[in-house]
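User
Take a look at the entry that follows and flag anything odd:
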Amino acid sequence: MYNISLKPQKVAPVKTKFRTIKTAIPSPSFVKTFSKLSRYEPQSLLVMIGKLPVLWDRAVDFQVFDKDGNCWIDFTSTIFAANTGHANPMIVAALKRQLAKPLLHSYTYATEIKAEFLEKLIKVTPKFCERAILFSGGSEAIEAAFLMMKAYGKSQNKSKTGIVSFEGAMHGVTMASQMLSGNSEVLSAYGYSDPTVYRLPFPYPWVDARYSGAERFKKDIDGLIRKGMKVKDIAGFMVEAYRGWGVIFYPPDYIKALVDFTRRNNILVAFDEIQGGFGRTGKMFTFQHYGVVPDLVLAGKGLSSSLPLSAVLGRKEVFNGADSLDVYHSTHSGNPLSCAVGLANLEELESKNLVGESARKGKILLNRLNALKKKHKNRVAYINGKGLVAAVLFKNPKTGEPDGEFASRVCERAMQKGLLLVHTGRESIKIAPPLTIPDEALKEGTMVLEESVKEISGK
Protein backbone atom coordinates (compact mmCIF):
# COMPACT_ATOMS: atom_id res chain seq x y z
CA MET A 1 0.00 0.00 0.00
CA TYR A 2 1.23 3.49 -0.87
CA ASN A 3 1.97 5.63 2.17
CA ILE A 4 1.23 9.33 1.86
CA SER A 5 4.41 11.22 2.69
CA LEU A 6 4.78 12.79 6.12
CA LYS A 7 7.81 14.76 4.92
CA PRO A 8 7.21 18.27 3.55
CA GLN A 9 7.22 18.46 -0.24
CA LYS A 10 7.51 21.64 -2.24
CA VAL A 11 4.29 22.17 -4.18
CA ALA A 12 2.93 24.81 -6.54
CA PRO A 13 1.24 27.68 -4.69
CA VAL A 14 -2.55 27.92 -4.95
CA LYS A 15 -4.75 30.96 -4.46
CA THR A 16 -8.45 30.88 -5.38
CA LYS A 17 -11.63 32.08 -3.74
CA PHE A 18 -11.88 28.82 -1.79
CA ARG A 19 -8.32 27.42 -1.59
CA THR A 20 -4.90 28.64 -0.47
CA ILE A 21 -1.66 26.70 -0.47
CA LYS A 22 1.40 28.77 0.39
CA THR A 23 3.83 26.34 2.09
CA ALA A 24 5.34 22.94 1.53
CA ILE A 25 2.85 20.15 2.24
CA PRO A 26 2.71 18.78 4.90
CA SER A 27 3.09 22.27 6.38
CA PRO A 28 5.57 23.35 9.07
CA SER A 29 2.83 23.53 11.73
CA PHE A 30 1.76 19.96 10.94
CA VAL A 31 5.32 18.67 11.21
CA LYS A 32 5.79 20.34 14.60
CA THR A 33 2.48 19.12 16.01
CA PHE A 34 2.85 15.61 14.58
CA SER A 35 6.27 15.33 16.22
CA LYS A 36 4.68 16.09 19.59
CA LEU A 37 1.75 13.72 19.04
CA SER A 38 4.12 10.92 18.01
CA ARG A 39 5.59 10.97 21.52
CA TYR A 40 2.22 10.19 23.09
CA GLU A 41 -0.21 8.54 20.66
CA PRO A 42 0.14 4.95 19.41
CA GLN A 43 1.58 4.50 15.94
CA SER A 44 -1.63 2.97 14.63
CA LEU A 45 -3.56 6.14 15.47
CA LEU A 46 -0.94 8.46 14.02
CA VAL A 47 -0.99 6.84 10.58
CA MET A 48 -4.49 5.35 10.57
CA ILE A 49 -6.23 4.97 7.24
CA GLY A 50 -8.34 7.95 6.33
CA LYS A 51 -6.10 10.58 7.90
CA LEU A 52 -4.21 13.05 5.74
CA PRO A 53 -1.18 14.98 7.04
CA VAL A 54 -3.03 18.27 7.62
CA LEU A 55 -3.08 20.28 10.84
CA TRP A 56 -6.67 21.22 11.61
CA ASP A 57 -6.41 24.61 13.34
CA ARG A 58 -9.81 26.02 12.33
CA ALA A 59 -12.74 24.75 10.29
CA VAL A 60 -15.54 26.99 9.08
CA ASP A 61 -18.48 25.79 6.99
CA PHE A 62 -16.80 23.83 4.13
CA GLN A 63 -13.20 24.97 4.63
CA VAL A 64 -10.32 23.80 6.83
CA PHE A 65 -7.44 26.09 7.85
CA ASP A 66 -4.03 25.34 9.33
CA LYS A 67 -1.72 27.74 11.24
CA ASP A 68 0.44 28.48 8.21
CA GLY A 69 -2.15 30.22 6.06
CA ASN A 70 -3.21 27.17 4.04
CA CYS A 71 -6.90 26.56 3.35
CA TRP A 72 -8.60 23.48 1.93
CA ILE A 73 -12.03 22.74 0.50
CA ASP A 74 -13.30 19.97 2.74
CA PHE A 75 -14.77 16.97 0.92
CA THR A 76 -14.66 14.88 4.13
CA SER A 77 -16.87 16.62 6.72
CA THR A 78 -14.10 15.31 9.05
CA ILE A 79 -15.52 11.80 8.84
CA PHE A 80 -19.04 12.36 7.42
CA ALA A 81 -19.99 14.35 10.53
CA ALA A 82 -20.25 18.08 9.73
CA ASN A 83 -23.51 17.90 7.77
CA THR A 84 -24.61 21.44 8.65
CA GLY A 85 -21.10 22.80 8.16
CA HIS A 86 -18.12 23.27 10.43
CA ALA A 87 -18.74 25.69 13.30
CA ASN A 88 -22.26 26.42 12.10
CA PRO A 89 -23.14 29.82 13.64
CA MET A 90 -26.44 28.54 15.08
CA ILE A 91 -24.67 25.59 16.68
CA VAL A 92 -21.94 27.83 18.11
CA ALA A 93 -24.60 30.18 19.52
CA ALA A 94 -26.48 27.27 21.11
CA LEU A 95 -23.27 25.99 22.66
CA LYS A 96 -22.44 29.42 24.09
CA ARG A 97 -25.91 29.69 25.63
CA GLN A 98 -25.55 26.32 27.29
CA LEU A 99 -22.05 27.13 28.54
CA ALA A 100 -23.31 30.39 30.02
CA LYS A 101 -26.17 28.67 31.88
CA PRO A 102 -23.97 26.87 33.14
CA LEU A 103 -24.75 23.16 32.92
CA LEU A 104 -21.98 21.04 31.39
CA HIS A 105 -22.82 17.56 32.65
CA SER A 106 -25.94 15.86 33.97
CA TYR A 107 -25.54 12.06 33.49
CA THR A 108 -29.09 10.74 32.95
CA TYR A 109 -30.82 13.25 35.21
CA ALA A 110 -33.71 15.27 33.83
CA THR A 111 -32.77 18.43 31.93
CA GLU A 112 -34.90 20.75 29.87
CA ILE A 113 -32.43 20.78 26.99
CA LYS A 114 -32.52 16.97 26.72
CA ALA A 115 -36.33 16.99 26.71
CA GLU A 116 -36.39 19.70 24.02
CA PHE A 117 -33.85 17.85 21.88
CA LEU A 118 -35.64 14.50 22.12
CA GLU A 119 -38.96 16.12 21.31
CA LYS A 120 -37.46 17.67 18.18
CA LEU A 121 -35.65 14.46 17.21
CA ILE A 122 -38.84 12.39 17.35
CA LYS A 123 -40.72 15.09 15.45
CA VAL A 124 -38.32 15.24 12.47
CA THR A 125 -37.80 11.49 12.08
CA PRO A 126 -40.24 8.93 10.55
CA LYS A 127 -43.39 7.99 12.47
CA PHE A 128 -42.13 4.58 13.63
CA CYS A 129 -39.42 6.39 15.64
CA GLU A 130 -41.41 6.64 18.88
CA ARG A 131 -38.56 6.34 21.38
CA ALA A 132 -34.90 7.35 21.44
CA ILE A 133 -31.91 6.82 23.68
CA LEU A 134 -28.78 8.96 23.54
CA PHE A 135 -25.11 8.08 23.67
CA SER A 136 -21.85 9.80 22.82
CA GLY A 137 -20.55 7.69 19.92
CA GLY A 138 -21.74 5.41 17.16
CA SER A 139 -20.19 2.27 18.61
CA GLU A 140 -22.18 2.75 21.81
CA ALA A 141 -25.38 2.91 19.77
CA ILE A 142 -24.42 -0.29 17.95
CA GLU A 143 -23.77 -2.09 21.24
CA ALA A 144 -27.15 -0.98 22.60
CA ALA A 145 -29.08 -2.01 19.49
CA PHE A 146 -27.26 -5.36 19.42
CA LEU A 147 -28.42 -6.12 22.97
CA MET A 148 -31.90 -4.66 22.41
CA MET A 149 -32.58 -6.98 19.49
CA LYS A 150 -31.33 -9.98 21.41
CA ALA A 151 -33.44 -9.08 24.45
CA TYR A 152 -36.55 -8.51 22.36
CA GLY A 153 -36.08 -11.87 20.63
CA LYS A 154 -35.44 -13.68 23.90
CA SER A 155 -38.66 -12.27 25.34
CA GLN A 156 -40.50 -14.31 22.68
CA ASN A 157 -38.32 -17.41 22.61
CA LYS A 158 -35.32 -18.12 24.84
CA SER A 159 -33.26 -19.29 21.89
CA LYS A 160 -34.19 -16.31 19.67
CA THR A 161 -30.96 -14.34 20.13
CA GLY A 162 -29.27 -14.63 16.73
CA ILE A 163 -28.22 -11.56 14.75
CA VAL A 164 -27.56 -11.45 11.00
CA SER A 165 -25.14 -8.86 9.60
CA PHE A 166 -22.92 -8.54 6.55
CA GLU A 167 -19.35 -9.65 5.95
CA GLY A 168 -16.91 -6.74 5.99
CA ALA A 169 -19.37 -4.17 7.31
CA MET A 170 -18.03 -1.28 9.39
CA HIS A 171 -20.17 -0.73 12.46
CA GLY A 172 -17.56 0.60 14.89
CA VAL A 173 -14.63 -0.46 17.04
CA THR A 174 -16.17 -2.08 20.12
CA MET A 175 -16.71 -5.78 20.67
CA ALA A 176 -20.27 -6.20 19.35
CA SER A 177 -19.56 -3.97 16.35
CA GLN A 178 -16.49 -6.04 15.50
CA MET A 179 -18.47 -9.27 15.82
CA LEU A 180 -21.07 -7.85 13.44
CA SER A 181 -18.31 -6.87 11.01
CA GLY A 182 -16.53 -10.21 11.24
CA ASN A 183 -13.01 -8.82 11.55
CA SER A 184 -11.21 -12.11 12.23
CA GLU A 185 -7.96 -10.48 13.39
CA VAL A 186 -9.70 -8.33 16.01
CA LEU A 187 -11.99 -11.15 17.11
CA SER A 188 -8.96 -13.39 17.56
CA ALA A 189 -7.47 -10.77 19.87
CA TYR A 190 -10.71 -10.68 21.86
CA GLY A 191 -10.58 -14.45 22.18
CA TYR A 192 -14.33 -14.69 21.69
CA SER A 193 -16.85 -14.46 18.88
CA ASP A 194 -20.60 -14.75 19.42
CA PRO A 195 -21.66 -18.00 17.71
CA THR A 196 -25.16 -16.59 17.22
CA VAL A 197 -23.94 -13.84 14.88
CA TYR A 198 -24.29 -14.84 11.22
CA ARG A 199 -23.00 -12.88 8.24
CA LEU A 200 -24.32 -12.59 4.72
CA PRO A 201 -21.99 -11.75 1.83
CA PHE A 202 -22.49 -8.16 0.69
CA PRO A 203 -24.27 -8.02 -2.71
CA TYR A 204 -21.55 -6.26 -4.70
CA PRO A 205 -22.76 -5.38 -8.21
CA TRP A 206 -19.81 -7.14 -9.83
CA VAL A 207 -20.52 -10.46 -8.04
CA ASP A 208 -23.32 -12.80 -9.18
CA ALA A 209 -24.69 -10.18 -11.55
CA ARG A 210 -26.88 -12.84 -13.16
CA TYR A 211 -29.19 -12.72 -10.11
CA SER A 212 -31.72 -10.03 -9.25
CA GLY A 213 -31.36 -8.46 -5.81
CA ALA A 214 -34.27 -10.50 -4.45
CA GLU A 215 -32.80 -13.71 -5.89
CA ARG A 216 -29.43 -12.87 -4.43
CA PHE A 217 -30.90 -12.42 -0.95
CA LYS A 218 -32.77 -15.73 -1.15
CA LYS A 219 -29.67 -17.55 -2.35
CA ASP A 220 -27.50 -16.10 0.43
CA ILE A 221 -29.98 -16.56 3.28
CA ASP A 222 -30.57 -20.14 2.13
CA GLY A 223 -26.80 -20.58 2.27
CA LEU A 224 -26.76 -19.57 5.96
CA ILE A 225 -29.64 -21.93 6.67
CA ARG A 226 -27.79 -24.81 5.02
CA LYS A 227 -24.83 -24.05 7.28
CA GLY A 228 -26.99 -24.51 10.35
CA MET A 229 -28.67 -21.18 11.04
CA LYS A 230 -32.23 -21.65 12.34
CA VAL A 231 -34.60 -18.90 11.26
CA LYS A 232 -36.73 -19.29 14.39
CA ASP A 233 -33.68 -18.36 16.48
CA ILE A 234 -32.91 -15.08 14.69
CA ALA A 235 -33.78 -11.92 16.62
CA GLY A 236 -32.64 -9.26 14.19
CA PHE A 237 -30.73 -8.04 11.16
CA MET A 238 -28.13 -5.27 11.43
CA VAL A 239 -27.98 -3.54 8.05
CA GLU A 240 -25.27 -1.09 7.01
CA ALA A 241 -27.05 1.73 5.13
CA TYR A 242 -24.53 1.27 2.30
CA ARG A 243 -21.13 -0.35 2.02
CA GLY A 244 -18.92 2.38 3.41
CA TRP A 245 -15.58 2.12 1.64
CA GLY A 246 -17.11 2.37 -1.83
CA VAL A 247 -20.50 4.02 -1.13
CA ILE A 248 -22.08 0.90 -2.64
CA PHE A 249 -25.85 0.72 -2.20
CA TYR A 250 -27.83 -2.49 -2.07
CA PRO A 251 -30.17 -3.29 -4.94
CA PRO A 252 -33.56 -2.00 -3.69
CA ASP A 253 -35.22 -5.37 -4.31
CA TYR A 254 -32.52 -7.03 -2.17
CA ILE A 255 -33.47 -4.88 0.84
CA LYS A 256 -37.18 -5.33 0.17
CA ALA A 257 -36.70 -9.10 0.08
CA LEU A 258 -34.72 -8.91 3.32
CA VAL A 259 -37.41 -6.89 5.10
CA ASP A 260 -40.17 -9.16 3.73
CA PHE A 261 -38.25 -12.14 5.14
CA THR A 262 -38.00 -10.52 8.57
CA ARG A 263 -41.70 -9.65 8.65
CA ARG A 264 -42.70 -13.21 7.81
CA ASN A 265 -40.50 -14.53 10.60
CA ASN A 266 -41.03 -11.95 13.36
CA ILE A 267 -37.44 -10.66 13.10
CA LEU A 268 -36.31 -7.09 13.79
CA VAL A 269 -34.41 -4.90 11.33
CA ALA A 270 -31.95 -2.23 12.47
CA PHE A 271 -30.41 0.21 10.00
CA ASP A 272 -27.00 1.64 10.83
CA GLU A 273 -27.43 5.24 9.62
CA ILE A 274 -24.51 6.61 11.64
CA GLN A 275 -22.72 7.68 8.46
CA GLY A 276 -25.66 8.03 6.08
CA GLY A 277 -28.29 9.78 8.19
CA PHE A 278 -29.54 13.35 8.46
CA GLY A 279 -29.46 14.29 4.81
CA ARG A 280 -26.14 12.84 3.75
CA THR A 281 -27.68 10.73 0.95
CA GLY A 282 -30.31 13.25 -0.12
CA LYS A 283 -33.00 11.89 2.20
CA MET A 284 -33.26 12.15 5.97
CA PHE A 285 -32.22 8.49 6.20
CA THR A 286 -30.74 6.13 3.63
CA PHE A 287 -33.31 3.37 4.21
CA GLN A 288 -35.90 5.70 2.63
CA HIS A 289 -34.18 5.14 -0.74
CA TYR A 290 -35.07 1.45 -0.44
CA GLY A 291 -38.75 2.02 0.32
CA VAL A 292 -38.74 0.04 3.56
CA VAL A 293 -39.47 0.73 7.23
CA PRO A 294 -37.08 -0.78 9.82
CA ASP A 295 -37.67 -1.26 13.54
CA LEU A 296 -34.57 0.54 14.79
CA VAL A 297 -32.37 3.31 13.38
CA LEU A 298 -28.89 4.08 14.65
CA ALA A 299 -27.73 7.68 14.29
CA GLY A 300 -24.60 9.69 14.98
CA LYS A 301 -22.13 11.97 13.20
CA GLY A 302 -24.58 14.27 11.36
CA LEU A 303 -26.94 14.12 14.35
CA SER A 304 -24.92 16.97 15.90
CA SER A 305 -22.49 17.93 13.10
CA SER A 306 -20.08 18.72 15.93
CA LEU A 307 -19.95 17.35 19.49
CA PRO A 308 -20.12 13.65 20.47
CA LEU A 309 -23.73 12.49 20.12
CA SER A 310 -25.40 9.30 18.92
CA ALA A 311 -28.79 7.71 19.27
CA VAL A 312 -30.88 4.60 18.82
CA LEU A 313 -34.42 5.36 17.63
CA GLY A 314 -37.34 3.08 16.91
CA ARG A 315 -40.54 1.38 17.91
CA LYS A 316 -41.47 1.60 21.58
CA GLU A 317 -42.25 -2.14 21.77
CA VAL A 318 -38.60 -2.91 21.00
CA PHE A 319 -37.40 -0.49 23.66
CA ASN A 320 -39.82 -1.91 26.23
CA GLY A 321 -38.59 -5.42 25.49
CA ALA A 322 -35.06 -4.56 26.60
CA ASP A 323 -35.87 -2.50 29.72
CA SER A 324 -34.52 -5.17 32.06
CA LEU A 325 -31.04 -5.02 30.52
CA ASP A 326 -30.32 -1.49 31.77
CA VAL A 327 -28.43 -0.63 28.56
CA TYR A 328 -29.98 2.80 28.07
CA HIS A 329 -27.28 4.99 29.51
CA SER A 330 -23.59 5.77 29.76
CA THR A 331 -21.64 8.53 31.51
CA HIS A 332 -22.25 11.12 28.81
CA SER A 333 -25.72 10.02 27.67
CA GLY A 334 -27.76 13.11 26.92
CA ASN A 335 -24.94 15.49 27.80
CA PRO A 336 -26.49 19.00 27.92
CA LEU A 337 -23.87 20.52 25.60
CA SER A 338 -24.41 17.77 23.03
CA CYS A 339 -28.20 18.09 23.31
CA ALA A 340 -27.98 21.86 22.81
CA VAL A 341 -25.97 21.53 19.61
CA GLY A 342 -28.06 18.57 18.47
CA LEU A 343 -31.21 20.67 18.73
CA ALA A 344 -29.61 23.56 16.83
CA ASN A 345 -28.35 21.12 14.20
CA LEU A 346 -31.82 19.69 13.56
CA GLU A 347 -33.26 23.19 13.32
CA GLU A 348 -30.59 24.11 10.75
CA LEU A 349 -31.33 21.00 8.70
CA GLU A 350 -34.98 22.04 8.59
CA SER A 351 -34.70 25.81 8.16
CA LYS A 352 -32.16 25.58 5.34
CA ASN A 353 -33.76 22.53 3.69
CA LEU A 354 -30.37 20.81 3.77
CA VAL A 355 -31.83 17.39 3.01
CA GLY A 356 -33.27 18.78 -0.21
CA GLU A 357 -30.08 20.68 -0.89
CA SER A 358 -28.10 17.47 -0.51
CA ALA A 359 -30.28 15.82 -3.17
CA ARG A 360 -29.95 18.82 -5.50
CA LYS A 361 -26.19 19.25 -5.06
CA GLY A 362 -25.74 15.50 -5.32
CA LYS A 363 -26.90 15.67 -8.92
CA ILE A 364 -24.21 18.27 -9.64
CA LEU A 365 -21.60 16.11 -7.95
CA LEU A 366 -22.54 12.87 -9.70
CA ASN A 367 -22.81 14.55 -13.10
CA ARG A 368 -19.28 15.85 -12.74
CA LEU A 369 -17.94 12.55 -11.43
CA ASN A 370 -19.53 10.65 -14.31
CA ALA A 371 -17.89 13.13 -16.70
CA LEU A 372 -14.59 12.33 -14.96
CA LYS A 373 -15.18 8.62 -15.54
CA LYS A 374 -15.93 9.25 -19.22
CA LYS A 375 -12.63 11.13 -19.65
CA HIS A 376 -10.62 8.58 -17.67
CA LYS A 377 -12.48 5.33 -18.37
CA ASN A 378 -9.20 3.39 -18.36
CA ARG A 379 -8.63 4.49 -14.75
CA VAL A 380 -12.12 4.88 -13.22
CA ALA A 381 -13.99 1.63 -12.66
CA TYR A 382 -17.10 2.83 -10.82
CA ILE A 383 -18.80 6.01 -9.68
CA ASN A 384 -21.18 5.44 -6.76
CA GLY A 385 -23.25 7.83 -4.71
CA LYS A 386 -26.46 9.48 -3.64
CA GLY A 387 -26.89 13.00 -2.33
CA LEU A 388 -23.62 14.39 -1.03
CA VAL A 389 -21.77 11.14 -0.49
CA ALA A 390 -19.94 9.52 -3.38
CA ALA A 391 -16.99 7.33 -4.21
CA VAL A 392 -14.65 6.97 -7.15
CA LEU A 393 -13.21 3.47 -7.56
CA PHE A 394 -9.96 3.26 -9.51
CA LYS A 395 -8.52 0.39 -11.52
CA ASN A 396 -5.21 -0.52 -13.07
CA PRO A 397 -5.48 0.41 -16.78
CA LYS A 398 -3.57 -2.71 -17.87
CA THR A 399 -5.11 -5.38 -15.67
CA GLY A 400 -8.43 -3.86 -14.69
CA GLU A 401 -7.71 -4.82 -11.09
CA PRO A 402 -8.48 -2.43 -8.19
CA ASP A 403 -5.70 0.16 -7.78
CA GLY A 404 -5.31 1.34 -4.20
CA GLU A 405 -1.96 2.99 -4.79
CA PHE A 406 -3.39 5.22 -7.51
CA ALA A 407 -6.27 6.24 -5.22
CA SER A 408 -3.82 7.15 -2.45
CA ARG A 409 -1.70 9.20 -4.83
CA VAL A 410 -4.78 11.07 -6.04
CA CYS A 411 -5.70 11.90 -2.42
CA GLU A 412 -2.18 13.16 -1.79
CA ARG A 413 -2.08 15.29 -4.93
CA ALA A 414 -5.50 16.79 -4.21
CA MET A 415 -4.36 17.67 -0.69
CA GLN A 416 -1.33 19.44 -2.15
CA LYS A 417 -3.71 21.44 -4.33
CA GLY A 418 -6.11 22.46 -1.55
CA LEU A 419 -8.75 19.70 -1.52
CA LEU A 420 -9.35 17.16 1.24
CA LEU A 421 -10.74 13.80 0.13
CA VAL A 422 -11.54 10.73 2.22
CA HIS A 423 -8.56 8.40 1.92
CA THR A 424 -9.86 4.83 2.36
CA GLY A 425 -6.58 2.96 1.90
CA ARG A 426 -8.32 0.94 -0.81
CA GLU A 427 -9.02 1.49 -4.50
CA SER A 428 -11.59 4.14 -3.64
CA ILE A 429 -11.70 7.75 -2.63
CA LYS A 430 -14.81 9.10 -0.93
CA ILE A 431 -16.41 12.50 -1.20
CA ALA A 432 -18.70 13.90 1.49
CA PRO A 433 -18.63 17.70 1.84
CA PRO A 434 -20.82 19.56 4.33
CA LEU A 435 -24.35 19.87 2.97
CA THR A 436 -23.91 23.64 3.14
CA ILE A 437 -21.14 23.76 0.53
CA PRO A 438 -21.86 26.35 -2.21
CA ASP A 439 -22.33 25.03 -5.75
CA GLU A 440 -19.28 26.99 -6.87
CA ALA A 441 -17.02 25.38 -4.26
CA LEU A 442 -18.43 21.94 -5.03
CA LYS A 443 -17.60 22.42 -8.70
CA GLU A 444 -14.12 23.73 -7.90
CA GLY A 445 -13.44 20.72 -5.72
CA THR A 446 -14.41 18.28 -8.47
CA MET A 447 -12.20 20.25 -10.86
CA VAL A 448 -9.26 19.76 -8.48
CA LEU A 449 -10.06 16.06 -8.30
CA GLU A 450 -10.00 15.80 -12.08
CA GLU A 451 -6.71 17.71 -12.25
CA SER A 452 -5.24 15.32 -9.67
CA VAL A 453 -6.37 12.21 -11.57
CA LYS A 454 -4.95 13.62 -14.80
CA GLU A 455 -1.60 14.53 -13.23
CA ILE A 456 -1.14 11.20 -11.43
CA SER A 457 -2.11 9.19 -14.49
CA GLY A 458 0.24 11.28 -16.62
CA LYS A 459 -2.50 12.14 -19.10
